[in-house]
Amino acid sequence: MSQMNRRRALQLLAALGTTGFVAGCGSDSDTEPNANRSPVKIGLITPQAGGFKSIGDDITNGFQLFLDLNDQQLGGHPVELLTADEGDTAKSGKAAVEGLLKQGVLALTGVVNSAVMVGIRDTVEQARVPLIGSNASPSSLQSVFYIWRTSYVLDEAGKALGRYLRDQLPANGRVAIIMPENVGSPDVVRGFRQEFGTSDPRIRDEVTYTSATANPGKTTYASDISKALAKKPTAVFCFFAGTAAVEFIKQLREKYAGPIYAPGFLTEGAVLDSLKDNALGIQTALNYSADLNNTSNRVFASAYRKKHQVTPTTYAMASYDAAQVLDQAIQLAGGKPTPQQVNLALGKIGQIDSPRGIWQFNQPRTPQQKWYLREVQRDGRVLSNVLINELATLG
User: Fold this and answer.
1) Which terminus of the chain has a smaller tally of CB atoms within 10 A, N or C?
2) Which family does the UniProt entry place this protein in (predicted)?
3) Do 108 and 234 sit in the same domain of this protein?
């Protein structure tokens, strides 16, 4: 563990009262005084209403938790956290970014919707202010200099499950692929087909695309589900999140009781609570599980549960890590950081000691990280995404 990460672990564990661990590890002292460092403004962009609001809340909670455990500072600078509503379109996202830029933010973070991320790309790059995206990550976002992501690239979720399901599905099996018609779905499908085998007859059927609305009704998916199930698949592979995930699974379960596989967003956070027994047995691939047994996750998950009385999600974790990488980059940038200096420093921070496990930025400015298989099981009276095994290292 690096000196900076070790110092942070000591601070966080001390905040949780784990004095025995702290005593055993010793202490570090800063080489550069931070007392006189001026405040910095960080802009947080999330949906504040609609079907993705719960994801936005998790992102806000994760970033704020890091600040809570670090004296409301990043890189030794007091932080003023400014928030803006990304809405649900590229236009509303661009307005949010422009509003934050006018307030003089040192860096931006957040962004849930892939369509918003694509829509704000040019605005961010032209402003030369780093954006540490903590959710939306379409693979089409290429050749960027100021946009970094602490989440994933969407095709990776498909790849991780493609490798796994290729070996699990019977030779005479058939997969029905059902996706919303949005920016991210082609990424997921491409990654899945690539690793499963594009010529494999078990996935040869056409993808069934559904409405991409974030606020579906009780029959929004009914006809598309019937179409996908007409060929009697032995498994369903799908990609939904937020309120849409709840409605899709409820409508699917009315007609289908077989195996369901998906990127982990399908059963993450508030979605799992809403699905109840409809979620049992669903297997998902994700870059994080609250079950992971490492020091950083024990600190993070314990503090998150204590503050919010719920299990942390991948959205909260990625936003926590966004704060962590900004903390390190701002520290490297020195006493009077500029957005351009922070952006350059982001490329120098190396490995991140994260709740998901160790990861680092790759050349496209996305994480090289492990992906995990999880299954929804009953844990006492509650449902939980139980960690099954490690699937792959991607990125």
Assistant:
1) N
2) Belongs to the leucine-binding protein family.
3) no
